Structure formats: C-alpha cells, structure tokens
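To close the section, here is one more complete example, presented without commentary so you can practise reading it yourself. The ligand is pyridoxal-5'-phosphate.
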Amino acid sequence: MTPPTAAPPLPAGGIAQVPDVHGRFGRFGGRYVPETLSAALDQLTAAYEEARADPAFQAELDQLLAAFVGRPTPLLFAKRLTDYAGGAQIWLKREDLGHTGAHKINNTLGQALLAIRMGKSRIIAETGAGQHGVATATACARFGLDCVVYMGSEDVRRQEPNVRSMKMMGAEVRPVESGSRTLRDAINEAMRDWMGSVETTHYIIGSVVGPHPFPRIVRDFQSVIGRETLAFCRKEIGRDPDCVVACVGGGSNAAGMFYPLVEHASIRLVGVEAGGRSGRPGDHAASLSFGSPGILHGSLSYVLQDGDGQTADVHSVSAGLDYPGVGPEHAWWHDTKRVEYTSVTDTAALAAFDLVARREGILPALETSHALAWAVEEAARRPASEHIVVCLSGRGEKDAAEIARLRAAAGGGHG
Ligand SMILES: *Cc1c(COP(=O)(O)O)cnc(C)c1O
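Output:
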C-alpha cells in the first residue's frame, strides 16, 4: 500500500469551501470519464447551480422531506447503551425512521427533482444492498419517472426483499452477471447504460462517489442530517456534541453528517469503515485505512487495489459497506486530518447489533452497527460530561435473515 503524501494546503475559504470548479477536493475528485458523459455532467452541474439558487426548488424538496420522508428525524438519547458503556452520553440520529428506512431517500428525492428540471424522464441507478435501489424506485414512483436499477446478480440473490419492493413500485431490476456480480459491477453497467442514453436519462448515483458533480450534489442533499443534528444538540444538550460518528461505505451518510460540522473545530469527527475478517487484502472494505490513491468510477480517491492498479476484491458482512472505493471528499478530510477514519470487524459489528437490539429495542442496519461498535467502546473511555452522536444510518430488519444464516452456519449463538 502507498503511504499518503503530504496533506494538500487548505483552500483560502476553509475546509468546507471545496470542491473547486473542477470538482477537486484538494487533489482528489475531478472527472475521469469518456467524452460522451462530459456534456451530461456539465448539464447536471449547471442544472444543480440553478436549482440551488432557486428558492422554489428548496421549498419543494423541504416539503417532500417533511411530509414524504418524515423529517426532521429525531435525536434519541440511548440511555441503556450509555449505562452499559459507563462513560460518555450516547445519542442516536434516527435516519432509520425516515421513509424507506435509511438516509438514501434524502439524495434520491433531490436528484429526481433535478432530473425533472433537466427534462429527463428515465432514471437509472446502481444498488448493492438494495437500499439505494428502493429509495430510487420510491422517488420514481412518486414522480412518475421510468426506473431501471442495476444490481449484481449475487446481490439480487442476497437481497431478495429489496428486489421485490423495487419491482412493486414499478422499477425494472437488471441483474449484472459480470465481474464479482456485486456493487462495483452494477456501477460499471449503469455507467455503460448512461453513455448510450444521456439524452433522456439521468443517473442517480447512490453515494458521494463518481465523477464531478456527483460527490458534491449527494453530500449537499445528505447535509440535512448534520444540520438537524447540530440544531437538536443545541436544543436538547444545550451545546455542540463532543464527537460525531458515522459508518463509511461510499461515504454519503458520513459526508451528510460531517459536512455541516467540519468548520466547528471543537467537534471530533470519526468515520468507521468495514474491517471485515482481517486487514489482509480481500478480507475487508476499508479504503481509507488500507487503500492508496487511484481512479475508480470517474474520480480520484483512496481505492483498494493491487500493485498493478487492479481494483481489489472486498469483503464485509454488510453489503452496504462492501465497496473498494470511497468518496473523494473523505480522502481530502483524511489527508487534511479533519476527520479520523478507523475500521471495525464483522464480529464487532455483529456484537454491536445484538447489544443495541437488546438494550435499546432498535435493530440497526449492519452498516450502522460498525459505527455503533466504535461509539460504545469510545464512550467507555470518555467522561460522563461528554456527548457522542452516532448517525443511525438505517434500520436492520433487512439484515435479520442474513444474521440468522450466519449464526446457523457458525453453529450456535442465539440467532
Ligand atoms: C447504503 C448504506 C450505507 C453505506 O453508504 P454510505 O454512502 O457510506 O452512507 C450505510 N448505512 C445504510 C443503512 C445504508 O443503506
């Protein structure tokens, strides 16, 4: 693995001012795509700038976030989890309570509105665990847009309930048979579709990854999480939190949580990646912890790759973290040391899932369980005067069958 080079200089406007006009976060990000996509990405950039300046756009999105998603999502004090840790106070930002059960919907509604502004009536998306596919199918049904979701055939098999939901809302699910038949192959296939269909089609990418302007747009749509968190903390705790934690797959729930906080230097920000079975290549999906700079899906960021630059195989117990790259803004926050990144193993995440289920009456997503595992350990080391907020990115009902299967295969447990 290549060690990161020296931290890039901070831009004059501060860490929250990036990306620049080329979509660069320091040296990361940018746009590495075939010519055919450049025009569509320019069109998207222009449409987004216009929409941002249009109060009617924000008003329509806010209205949907309130009445359709159920925002603002609450900030819950996790009393019995806090008692268990015996240290800092643990709070949960309840993205699991939003419509469709995860944060993904914040982004798909925003991008669907952008597609309508651009006069595009067909939507494509990729999905791994199926959460982004469901959130995209939901937005498309709401607005009457055609919807095609690319999904690795291995994931189609593993995530059957989500596949059924997408179809019920009128989406077409196209299984992808190439490569490892998982998320990164689904993104390749969606990009290929888009190259032949850009005139009529908008690609709703599901995380803060991909070519400029996607990382910025997705981060902005998810930033409602961090803004609400700050407001709730000031109201309910009476001050800013000491530490905020989120799991990192592509990095959208974490970016949405962190971005409104990065200029608040007193708040410690921690991103938790999938540590999988071990730190050996192929055994995890921790791109910032173990990867090196490279280009994946149209942008420069930390990537898990072999010595020849071939994207590595990845593993995580949670399908939503099982991705060999990470959003470029996280690479920038990593190198500027504004955010700490760490990883949590499959085993620790599963234990945290049990703990939160039994002590709080909440089944957290396996993705989220990684952040919870770190938060509980850290809370035990911190004084009771401190407050830790965990982004509870989604609900775990989708994972119940897989967890039961793993327990049965391991020949025990209490599944
Ligand atoms: C998709 C997903 C993630 C991982 O994606 P990010 O872009 O890193 O947020 C995490 N949690 C849940 C519940 C998800 O559905």
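Once you have examined the tokens, check your reading against these statements. Residues 20 and 345 are 35 Å apart (CA to CA). The two ends are 38 Å apart (CA to CA).
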